[in-house]
């Protein structure tokens, strides 16, 4: 177990270094002036040079990268060009909101996807299987932003049951897990859960169908074991794969929710990325991508460890 953990950590180091290079270079080669959002239209060249020096944009790219990476490893992601506030504070606030949304969406997707997948796999080649497969394909194929706008029209505009946008009231006590705040999460969380539902359902269905065709299931039935006990054996063998997919979906939703968070004005990393891109805020854009990549790599490491712990076959290999 210790050797596996060390091996995974060693693999994560070059991955993060590669991510750092990519996210740094992508924003550098993007067109536009990163200082346009903080300079007045009639700004002098002297002011521009002063700002270039203040943000380190006047240095060669290799030196900029080394300085940025060194600061990032120490938790310093620089200052936002647009707001003048520390990037790490803005990113961590957005990560907190996105993590709440991603966790709720993943739980919804895991429950619905596992239900559809187990039922479809257990009754494979039946009408239930075909219906679950259609729903899975719909979940994977439907555009997020279109579904989000449709839900806003139905539940917010037509019936006025749920708020359309925002992240809840933020007062002295901050964000809490109560109805006053949760009602803002339901529409974006359900919108985000559709794709994980389809992915998990298809994965679990394939896994269950494969397990049911194995010899040990035939042997259990030959010994007269009832279907409920057999079902428990199927769940035990399919759970590691389902949990691995669920864990990866959290990372995907953290970084892939830019359109949904924009539609619902949810103050998460997707909204922050959208703002950074349109304002050409390079420090904020780099910091957000870096933190999301770090989160995804650490989450992937955690999923590997949990899967190894839950599945003895992986541990033996």
UniProtKB/TrEMBL annotation:
InterPro entries assigned: BPD_transp_1_N (IPR045621), MetI-like (IPR000515), MetI-like_sf (IPR035906)
Kindly report the protein's main subcellular placement as a broad class. Answer: membrane
Transmembrane residues, as ranges?
7-30, 101-123, 135-161, 181-201, 242-264, 284-306
Classification via Pfam families = BPD_transp_1, BPD_transp_1_N
Keywords annotated in UniProt: Cell inner membrane, Cell membrane, Membrane, Transmembrane, Transmembrane helix, Transport
Q: Which residues form the ABC transmembrane type-1 domain?
A: 95-307
Can you supply one Gene Ontology CC term for this chain's record? Answer: plasma membrane
Return one GO MF term.
Answer: dipeptide transmembrane transporter activity
- Tell me the compartments it is located in: Cell inner membrane; Cell membrane
What is the superkingdom listed in this entry's lineage? Bacteria
The record gives the membrane topology as: Multi-pass membrane protein
Q: Which PROSITE patterns match?
A: ABC_TM1
Q: Which family does it belong to?
A: Belongs to the binding-protein-dependent transport system permease family. OppBC subfamily.
Q: What is this protein called?
A: Peptide/nickel transport system permease protein
**Species of provenance:** Klebsiella oxytoca
* Lineage of origin: Bacteria, Pseudomonadati, Pseudomonadota, Gammaproteobacteria, Enterobacterales
């Amino acid at each position: 177990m210790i050797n596996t953990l060390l091996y995974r950590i060693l693999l994560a180091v070059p991955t993060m270094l590669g991510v750092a290079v990519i996210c740094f270079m992508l924003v550098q080669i993007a067109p536009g002036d990163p200082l346009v959002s903080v300079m007045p239209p009639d700004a002098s060249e002297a002011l521009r040079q002063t700002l270039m020096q203040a943000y380190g944009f006047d240095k060669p790219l290799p030196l900029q990268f080394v300085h940025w990476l060194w600061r990032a490893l120490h938790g310093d992601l620089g200052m936002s060009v647009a707001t003048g506030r520390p990037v790490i504070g803005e990113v961590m606030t957005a990560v907190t909101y996105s993590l709440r949304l991603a966790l709720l969406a993943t739980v919804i997707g895991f429950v619905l996807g596992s239900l559809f997948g187990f039922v479809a796999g257990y009754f494979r080649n039946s009408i239930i299987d075909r219906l679950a497969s259609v729903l899975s394909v719909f979940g994977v194929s439907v555009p997020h932003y279109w579904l989000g706008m449709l839900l806003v029209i139905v539940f917010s505009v037509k019936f006025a049951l749920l708020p359309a946008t925002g992240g809840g009231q933020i007062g002295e006590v901050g964000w809490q897990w109560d109805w006053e705040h949760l009602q803002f999460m339901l529409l974006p969380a359900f919108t985000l859960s559709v794709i994980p539902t389809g992915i998990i359902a298809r994965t679990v269905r394939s896994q269950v169908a494969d397990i049911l065709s194995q010899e040990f299931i035939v042997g259990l039935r030959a010994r007269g074991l009832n279907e409920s006990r057999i079902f428990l054996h199927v769940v035990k063998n399919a759970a590691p794969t389902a949990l691995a997919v669920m864990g990866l979906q959290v990372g995907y939703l953290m970084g892939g929710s830019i359109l949904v968070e924009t539609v619902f004005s949810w103050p998460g990393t997707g909204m922050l990325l959208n703002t950074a891109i349109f304002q050409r805020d390079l420090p904020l854009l780099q910091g957000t991508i870096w933190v999301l990549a770090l989160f995804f790599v650490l989450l992937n490491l955690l999923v590997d460890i949990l899967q190894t712990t839950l599945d003895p076959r992986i541990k033996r290999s």
